[in-house]
Structures are given as C-alpha cells and as structure tokens.
Amino acid sequence: MDATTVVGAVISLMIITGIVTWDDILNNKPAWNVLAWFATLVAMADGLNKVGFVTWFAKSASALLTGLSPIVIMVSLLVIFFIVHYMFASITAHTTAVLPVILAAGALVPGMPVRTFAMLLCYSLGIMGIITPYATGPGPVYFGSGYVNLKDFWTLGLIFGLIYLIALIVIGIPYLLAIQL
C-alpha cells in the first residue's frame, strides 16, 4: 500500500474518531507547510530519476571532465555530487539515484583512486544534510519548528555546506590518499 494512502487514511480516522479536530490540523501550519514541500520534493526527485535526468546529468558532467587529472576529476565529481543534493528531498533518494552513477563515472577514469573516491562520496553524505530544510529527515522538523526561518536556513546551509565541503577536499583527500592501501 502506498505510504501517502496510509497517511491519508490515518489522518481521516483520527478526525472521524475525534482524536484530533479539523481545527487542530488547520492550526498546525508549519507541519502542513513542511508536508507540502517535502512531498513535492520527493515527487520531483523521483520524477527526475524516472525520466533519466540524473543519469544524463552525470554523463554530461563526466564528459566535460575528459582529459583532466584523476584528482581534478575526483574533486569535480565530488562537488557535482554534493551540489546535486539540492534536487533531492532526502539523502536516501540522493544516494540511491546519484551515488552509483557518479561512482561509475569516476571508476572509468584511468588512474582514479576508486576506494578514496568512494569514501569521499560517502563522507559527503554526512555533511550535505545541512544544506537545505529538506536535505535529511530532521531538517523539516527543525525548519517546521520555526526556530530557524527559511532565509537563514538556506543562507546557513550554503555557508556551512561550503565550509564542510572545502574541509573534506582540503583535509579529506590528502588524508585518504596518504592512508590508501
């Protein structure tokens, strides 16, 4: 059964049985705002994947990098992987749709340290959760609570996302290359 159907049925049953009233639901605007945005973004990410946009984008990006050194390509694909997360409503959707494509594109590069590249991609998943209000499961909760307004969330997400990504590149790549077996 589709998750949306289950949620709709449960909300309907809660209203019918009096657990919550319609006014209770209408008074919780932040939750409905998050639900509407999150549902839209999940549907968009799924649609982009189904129509082949993600694969097309990865192939086009890797074609532009032909002839560069493996380290430059690794950094470029890592940055692309990180930035593409703006189009996905969850790290899980992003990982399942984009990670295999980017990893495959990098693995085809002669001289690419594939183990290091794979680890960098996985490490970036841990830091990209802060870039948008919908990037991870807790993101919509933080945003919906009203503690951080939308403009600040996006601004801080951009600033800290860049800081974390630069640290991963400047510290992570040399470290991972140094410990490579």
How is this structure best described in words?
With 181 residues, the chain is mainly alpha-helical. It has one domain. The protein has nine helices and no strands. The chain has helices spanning 3-16, 22-26, 29-50, 53-64, 70-84, 91-107, 114-127, 138-144, 150-179. Helix 3 (29-50) runs antiparallel to helix 8 and helix 5 packs antiparallel against helix 6. It is elongated and about 65 Å long. 25% of the residues are buried. The mean pLDDT is 83.
Which short descriptors sum up this protein?
single chain; 0% strand
Please compute the radius of gyration using only Cα atoms.
20 Å
Number of helices: 9
Helix percent reads over 70%
Order of helices and strands: HHHHHHHHH
Q: Which structural category do the helix and sheet elements fall into? A: mainly alpha
The dominant shape is elongated
How many domains? The number is: 1
Strand portion: under 5%
User: Can you tell me the residue ranges where pLDDT is under 50 for at least 5 consecutive residues?
Assistant: none
Query: Can you summarize the main beta sheet?
Result: none
Give the arrangement of secondary structure elements.
Elements: H1 3-16, H2 22-26, H3 29-50, H4 53-64, H5 70-84, H6 91-107, H7 114-127, H8 138-144, H9 150-179
Could you give a short description of this structure?
Helices cover 75% and strands 0% of the residues. With 181 residues, the protein is mainly α.
